[in-house]
Fold these 2 entries.
Entry 1:
Amino acid sequence: MKKLFVSLFLLLGLAAASNAQNIDTETIKTVIKTEKRIFFTENMQLSLDEAGKFWELYDEYELAKGEIGREKTKLFEQMIEETDGITDEEAQQMVLTLLDLQQRSLKVEKKYMKIMMKELSPKTVARFFQLNELVNSFLKTQILSEMPIIQK
């Protein structure tokens, strides 16, 4: 468990440092992707038999979630740029778009949970989704805490 928190702390620190240093977005994404992979390698406790199947499914899952992530990044960039001067209609559209992206993301998660359950043990799948939620929550908190809030 201690190893888990150290890994998360390092990942969170990396995200914070990347924001502070104005590193380009693609570099940040590459580094976070690599760090997430290291995090899962250290914390999934995969058997040799499960490891090959897991990483193949993990790569497919990340690819499926990638487009949604890019759209969410674009939306957040729009929110950052327009926090002071948006209309009520634009604000409403941003919220609807965010909810749509969350719904699409959940659909992908459900799809891959079913696929993973066919190839991996239920405990391995549950561990992945638990760890994935944990690491994504840390990253999301870091990103959202840096965003300006839309003004009245």
Note: The radius of gyration is 17 Å.
Entry 2:
Amino acid sequence: MRFIVGAKDSFANETVKLHEMIREKGVDSRLKIYANIGHSFPEDFDEYLRKMLFY
């Protein structure tokens, strides 16, 4: 699983908790937090997705 979350997202803490729970169950999960993103998708979100695929 891959998670992308913005540090400005009001759900960021919950996403981190979910990521940690999934990892504790042995699932390969990666989390990337971007400082400049909120809850909405930025115009260049496809670039964030590309980067996450190889993270």
Note: Residues 15 and 48 are 17 Å apart (CA to CA).
